[in-house]
Automatic annotation (TrEMBL):
Name of the featured protein: DUF2281 domain-containing protein
Species the sequence originates in: Neosynechococcus sphagnicola sy1
Domain of life from the UniProt record: Bacteria
Amino acid sequence: MATLILSDEQVIELVKQLPVEQQVEVFRFLLLQQWGKWESLSRYGAEKARLVAQKKDLDWDLMTEGEREVFIDDVVHED
């Protein structure tokens, strides 16, 4: 079986030429390939956020989504 070598740009252009239904299938395939890594990173980030909140006498799990966003913004912009 011959191997075809394409640049990233060529692959993207080929995917763009697919019908929408097939583009969705490609997207689904790629998403599922990375799902485990994303889930692991998400758990890691949430645990670190809980620890930082706890050090500031806050409970991450009791915070609303808005409070979490403000908290993260404050942490990111701390000096």
